Amino acid sequence: MWASDGARVDALRDKVFRLCGTSRWSTDQLREALQNSSNDVNKAADALAAKVPKMPETDSEPPSTPPGLRTPAKPSFIMPDTVALTPAQVVAAPPVAPVVRVGVGVVVRDPSDGKILVGERYGSHGANKLAFPGGHLEMNESWEECARREVYEETGLQLGPITHAATTNDPMPAEGKHYITIFMQADARAGQTPVNLEPHKCKGWKWTSWEEIVALPADRMFIPFQHFVEIKAAEEEAKQAAEARAVAAAEAKEAAVTAAAADLIAAKAIEGALAEEAVVDVAKPKADPEVMAKATTEIVEAAEAEVAVEAGGGAPAAGGKKKKKGKSKP
């Protein structure tokens, strides 16, 4: 916003002078041009410049102004596209607010042995730390596109199918940075050898086993790399614990089944023994009291008769019954 009409008029005169090398308009004419152009200096200057032929560039002074018109001072410079600030203005300028940036890291595997490509960072934040290939996600770029581009730019490798591996939150207070890192994973196409195509950013690439990566000290890892390793190590530990629980549950189930089978076998044996006893008991003849009494009487009488015969008198023993005639034993 301009401080006064006079300031707007002066600005308009300077603008017209820069456009066509002269300003042959009175103050009233310039003020009217401003009003007709909605007080927009640029619009008014463009309208006036269209009416005045542009003067050829020359080091001579501009032509004299008719009497009654103020000749503006020739500006000492033309406004450039970018303005250079003085040191005082730089100090007084408000600081630029930091933003959270998005990075993409790529876990590249060797299809022959499953080893992973790891490099040592150089010349940027995280220098001398180990990390995967990767970089910034560019405008309108997909995660997969970024992964392929960064790996090819840094190593020359082309990748097979790519999948998402993990996402980490990576604040770096000591360096004044904060990243969200999206980790993608893929196998390199067979028969390729990684090449260090950005030696100003990386000291070199090396195929490394996962066991070697997990064993690295934390101070050797770039922060996003470290967070990824921690996440995957925790997932592997949880997976192993789940597998151990599953094995223990299977063993307990097998033991329970074995014990139940043993109990069933014992129950069947007992049931079979009881059934056999019942069969034997049913097969035995039942004793009739009358039959038993008659048989006992006959046995006693036969014994008495034998005793009498042995005595030679033919008479039964004392207290015995007399043997009937014709019924003696031959």
Polypeptide structure, described:
There is one protein chain. The chain is of the alpha+beta class. Among the domains are: 5-51; 101-233, Alpha-Beta Complex (Nucleoside Triphosphate Pyrophosphohydrolase); 288-319. Helices cover 44% and strands 16% of the residues. It is built from 8 helices and 7 strands; from the N terminus they run ααααββββαβββααα. It has helices at residues 5-20, 27-36, 41-51, 87-92, 143-155, 210-214, 223-283, 289-311, and strands at 101-109, 116-121, 130-131, 134-136, 159-172, 177-188, 202-208. It has a 4-stranded mixed sheet, sandwiched between helices. A 3-stranded antiparallel sheet has the order 3-2-7. The longest helix has 61 residues, at 223-283. The N and C termini lie far apart (165 Å).
Summarize this structure as a short list of keywords or feature phrases.
330 residues; alpha+beta; Nucleoside Triphosphate Pyrophosphohydrolase; four-stranded mixed beta sheet; three-stranded antiparallel beta sheet; 8 helices; 7 strands
CATH fold type of one domain: Nucleoside Triphosphate Pyrophosphohydrolase
What low-confidence regions span 5 or more consecutive residues with pLDDT below 50?
322-330
Radius of gyration: 57 Å
Mean pLDDT: 79
